[in-house]
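Input record, target 12 of the design panel.
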């Protein structure tokens, strides 16, 4: 919990600095490929590389699920889980944090299952900054 608060403060402070290399939702100052907005949403540290915050896929039999950290206190972002069979049409929305604000697992972890049993299926997490 402490590290999440720290990350949020860093995120805001750097945004004020207005340096495009380190500031704002699309910057990646630690160069780990995870942009500031995603670091913020998933409780990462924008100053320290680490892929551990990234969503995980759980696949067993015909059921797939995406698991990610979801902090219900972050009301300035929306987390949306989308599914696709071709990586082009992402209109299948499995979860939207604006409609379901609570995490459904321990330690603020969110598990979103995909009930569709197609031969090819892709899941992604989209994080949006709300005004
Ligand atoms: Ca980063």
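The sequence produced for target 12 reads:
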């Amino acid at each position: 919990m402490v590290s999440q608060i720290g990350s949020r403060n860093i995120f805001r402070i750097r945004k004020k600095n207005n340096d495009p290399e380190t500031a704002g939702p699309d910057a990646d100052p630690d160069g780990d490929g995870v942009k500031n907005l995603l670091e913020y949403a998933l409780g990462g540290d924008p100053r320290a590389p680490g892929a551990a915050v990234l969503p995980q896929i759980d696949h067993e039999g015909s059921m797939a699920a995406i698991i990610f950290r979801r902090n219900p206190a972050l009301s300035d972002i929306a987390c949306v889980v989308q599914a696709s069979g071709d990586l082009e049409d992402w209109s299948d929305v499995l979860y939207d944090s604006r409609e379901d604000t609570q995490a459904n697992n321990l330690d603020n972890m969110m598990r979103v299952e995909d009930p569709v049993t197609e031969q090819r299926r892709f899941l992604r997490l989209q994080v949006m900054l709300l005004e």
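Residues 23 and 89 are 31 Å apart (CA to CA).
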